[in-house]
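Re: that backbone. Tokens:
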């Protein structure tokens, strides 16, 4: 006799009501946490997005004025034209470095700093070049700074400025650079007597004094030795004093 095992259907016991309620409460709590986190994130991001739009896209903080500081030779209108920023451009989007490059191309500008002044002003602070010498050109005087840059003209040589005689004045001309270096390095006692600095080449600098005498300086360098020799020789008769060799001097009557 074969004995079989009969299978009985399992009895599904329904979850207790309090367990269902707990699960529902947990799901609701999770949804609440997600919503709160999303809300907190939006509360932070939305003001930032709005602020970015106001600063970068709207005209509320657009450029409505260009303030030019530090100019005397340059007209503020010339600087404003070089700035090249359209009125209403969002101030935050102005490339101040590019503006500085454009303004620096103006010959009288030695240095420039551009900054934003909220809510709508672009401030351009200019440092102009200082004249170190003047070069006669077609009946007027071209002003040259200490580096050799020609940046302006005057009808006559300004008082206290030395006259520069070179063939091709400019910062890339070796004779110009040598002449300016020699004059700038002179001691005050000798420099005050110099009326013209002439340089046919970088090694042929000559100082023409206010009394008509000449000091042949040669190339830049050995300033202390050459200046001491020149000052000592100028107490003696002569018209040309050659100190270009430094230790060996020559006086011509």
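Recovered sequence:
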């Amino acid at each position: 006799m074969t004995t079989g095992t009969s299978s009985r259907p399992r009895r599904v016991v329904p979850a207790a009501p309090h367990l269902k309620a707990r699960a529902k409460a947990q799901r609701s709590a999770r949804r609440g946490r997600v919503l709160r986190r999303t809300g907190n994130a939006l509360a932070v991001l939305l003001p930032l997005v709005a602020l970015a739009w106001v600063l970068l896209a709207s005209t509320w903080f657009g450029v409505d004025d260009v303030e030019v500081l530090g100019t005397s030779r340059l007209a503020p209108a010339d600087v404003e034209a070089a700035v090249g920023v359209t009125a209403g451009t969002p101030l935050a989007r102005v490339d101040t470095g590019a503006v500085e490059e454009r303004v620096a191309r103006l010959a009288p500008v030695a240095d420039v700093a551009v900054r934003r002044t909220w809510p709508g002003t672009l401030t351009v602070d200019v440092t102009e070049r200082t004249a170190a010498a003047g070069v006669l050109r077609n009946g007027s005087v071209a002003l040259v700074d200490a580096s050799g840059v020609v940046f302006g003209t005057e009808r006559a040589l300004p008082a206290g400025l030395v006259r520069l005689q070179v063939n091709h004045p400019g910062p890339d001309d070796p004779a110009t650079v040598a002449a300016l270096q020699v004059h700038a390095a002179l001691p005050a006692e000798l420099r005050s007597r110099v009326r013209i600095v002439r340089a046919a080449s970088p090694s042929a600098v000559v100082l023409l004094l206010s009394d008509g005498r000449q000091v042949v300086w040669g190339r830049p360098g050995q300033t202390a030795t050459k200046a001491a020799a020149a000052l000592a020789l100028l107490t003696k008769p002569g018209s040309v004093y050659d100190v270009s060799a430094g230790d060996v001097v020559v006086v011509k009557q």
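The first helix runs from residue 17 to 56. The chain has three domains: 21-57, 65-128, 131-252.
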